Write the structure tokens for this entry.
Amino acid sequence: MNVYALWFWVMAGALLAAAVWAILRPLLKREAASESATDDLSLEIYRARFTELDDDISGGSVSAAEKDIVVSELERDLLRAAERGPVDATAPKGSRNRMVAAMLALLLPALVVGLYFALGRPDVARDIAGAEAEMKSAHLASIESMVEGLAARMEQQPDDRQGWEMLARSYMVLGRYAEAVVAAEKLYALAGDEPEVLLRLADALSMANGGDLAGRPAELVQKALVLDPNHPTALWLAGAAAAESGNHGAATAFWERLLPLVANEPEFRAQVAEAIANVRLAAGDAGSAQQPGSNAGAIRIRVELAPSLADQADPDSTVFIIARASEGAAMPLAVQRRTVKELPLDATLDDSLSMSDAAKLSDFTTIDLSARVSHSGRAGRESGDLIGELRGVTVGADTPANIIIDTRVP
């Protein structure tokens, strides 16, 4: 049973219980009220007899001697009535109330559930679970229908530059990369060597080839850079192409040129900084035993592995020690690469290990630290990695920051 069905039946059961109680409660109260009313009626009868007796004595129809006899008889009758409880006339009514209540408590839920399965929608809870997926599918089908309509129109209007550009972009969004290449080629044939056009075609070719920028995509990116040396997309793709080919220095150079151009785009800037960190780590530029610099931005760190995780870390696995900005985009500021067999270890991060001249440790008052055991040796966090983190560490503090690697990445 899915969660939607479970919640449906829980709510339905609660509402049904409330309805049954609302019906049964008056019956049960009426029974109690009847018993109480019977007792009150018996008392009223005897009070009336005593009042009549007083009137008879006052009128002279009953003597004082006869009064004692009559009073004794009335008292005996009242005592016997109290010992019997409610008079017999009310007993069947109370029993009927209880019987009716019991029957309703059993039959009403069965009747309601039966009517629901006969006349209602017992599959509605299951339908709710798939409603969102169906809506998304319908929305996607609608988009694909519009794209097909645009493609048909372009067959009739092959000289429409904006149409080919829109079609190429639409195919990329839908993940239909081979068709995106065809549309981008049509656009290139019409527009010629324009940076945006060249980069659109390079991106489509790369995605159609599994994300590989080697060959013609890289050539198109370089041509775009010649036309516009500060084009952000061209610099990003050029760095990616260089990193793929193993030219880490060129990749770093392209992406460092890109950083100041995306200063107002914190998410993209963080992505670029992360890419620079990954390239430097892959090239070994982060170093494993560099001496601390003399600037005031140095951070001393003590890294330990929790005993409970010791059997989950291979001695030769890589340990990444990373400092990130505490505020804004959590971009890496400095990185050091060590190994598990060195733990516990002492390390120092300073400006000499900064990922970029545009963002150094000494530029920040507080930073966040992490130490992560990477089983794959890659800089990006992966499932199964072991990690320890510290938040709000003061840059330049006299005492070392103690990081304990005590958590497994889900």
In short: Residues 31-41, 82-95, 286-295 have pLDDT under 50 and may be disordered.
